[in-house]
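Hey, can you fold this one?
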Amino acid sequence: MKTSPCLIGPKNFRDFERIINQSIKGVDKCLGYFYFDSPDYEMHETGIDSFKVHRIVKRINRIVRRLAKANPDTLFLSFADHGHINVEFLDICEHEDLYALLDKPMSFEKRTPTFFVKKGVNKEFEELFKKYYGEHFLLMNKEEVLESKIFGEGKVNPKAVAFIGDYHAGNTKEEMKIDISAYNV
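Sure. Predicted structure:
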């Protein structure tokens, strides 16, 4: 069995293309997954419409076209691990009535935070969250998060359940959509 050279990971786009080509050569059947943190990083920093992001996406498209041409018997799929939208920072502390209902500080990730609320204030928390942020964000309780399988299929690790908190928010329909492109179909 051939060991993948990508265990170290690419340092740049040229390296990324080289590693993928090396991984494919000499292998009859395989499934490979390659992740590169660009343009995700740049989208978080400069927004989805920036010239820098546009330039990176065009470069990735050229790389995938070259890979597909060099490996005509290989099916390539390119996709993002999540969608992106431009965001505006909102500070929950500006709404003292809502913030006062939290048992612990928000956690997880800024774009998709989890909330631990004080006992007995769930309904009030939901109403205030909807009032201040309902037009922008989807709020799900723990059960809805688990049922939606937003974090993937399979058995959920009990430790992961604790991290979800009482509520999870921030996902927008736009961010849950991703484009998938297929090459050499």
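The longest helix spans residues 51-70. Let me know if you want another pass with a different chain boundary.
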